[in-house]
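Reviewers of the previous submission asked for a worked example of the structure-prediction workflow described in the proposal, so we include one complete record here. The input consisted solely of the amino acid sequence. No template or homolog information was supplied to the procedure at any stage.
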Amino acid sequence: MDIVYGIMLDNGSGYNARCDSSLGLHVGDFCVIRKDFYLDYGQIVKQFDAPPPESTPAAPVEEERESGGTVFSAKKNEIYAIQRKATVVDQGKAHENQMRAKSALRITGQYVDRLGLPMKLINAHYSYDGKLITVQFSAEGRVDFRELVKLLSQEFNTHIELRQIGVRDETAILGGIANCGRPLCCCRFLKDFASINVKMAKEQDLSLTPSTISGICGRLKCCLKYEHEGYLELEKTMPRRGELCECKDGRGRVVDRNLLTQKVTIQLENSTHTVVCPASEVSVVYLDKYKMRGGAGQGGSESGDAKQSAEENAPQQKPARQDGQGGQNRPHGQPQRKQGDRPQRPAGEQRQQNQNRPPQNPNRPPRPPRQDGGNQNGGNRDGGKPNNSRPPRRPQQG
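From that input alone, the workflow returned the following structure tokens.
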């Protein structure tokens, strides 16, 4: 019966491999693995009870070979075959390959500086039989390293594989101390990076400042995803911030809470005093004006307090204003008449009075028609500017 193991290489990368149970391998043993065209050397770090699913699509890994062409390989979930358990001779050869890998990394750094490539070299790995050298690096964007591959293949006379990794993988390989004072979780046991978002930090009542929720890699902390389900279970029995609650000291609103200790901080009404109470001793209060409408048994009518609240919140209509002249009620919206204004007459009567009005100066002769075709104001119809070319007016007769 075949057993599937998780293999870890000296450069931090890993893959799955299978072998027969007759080899008697256990977690922590070193072994020799047969891969595509070469032999590799690694340590067993995990044993699977059931074979992992191979149908899971893997993200393509961009690789650069000595030929200068780009190869996209999706063999991340491919299961290789373990040939044998490592012997003392195999372990000696593996240590020799590690020394050669350090020398290869130093030479690669010299070529990178000579070509001026914006890349940060992390480590190098020699295969067990020396047929492949894998160099891992990190960069902010895509790097054209085809010329570098050609120079390295001529230098070492073997296959060269340059692999670009992200900042999270770089941190997991190099290691470090987190803000909590312990080694990084990604370096210890979190080997699979899941998607993390800011919503997880909000649901855990954490401050959204970047220094609080970001790790030393500059990305969101991996523990946000690892502890998210536990915080969701703790949050079910806790009141939210801003809710009106009752405790043994009175009624107040929740201003702070601690999900881990299951305690809430309540600010009492009409006071600046705050108290800290366990969540089990706090009950959420729902006032009558926030209650929903009654069911079918109540005829779909609101309660008395709800109606009273609706009437209080409704806009009040202004009463009719008192007119200063007649003392009669004037409806809202009608303009108020000023004192001393004459009452308006009907339109027909006013028009008849204008027709019977005599001219102001009967001795004045009528004005002659204009010759420039302008309007009465002395301007042109097009622009409204005065026309200076018109003849002067006749003098008025006294």
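Residues 55-75, 294-310, 322-328, 376-384 have pLDDT under 50 and may be disordered. We consider this example representative of the routine output the project will generate in years two and three.
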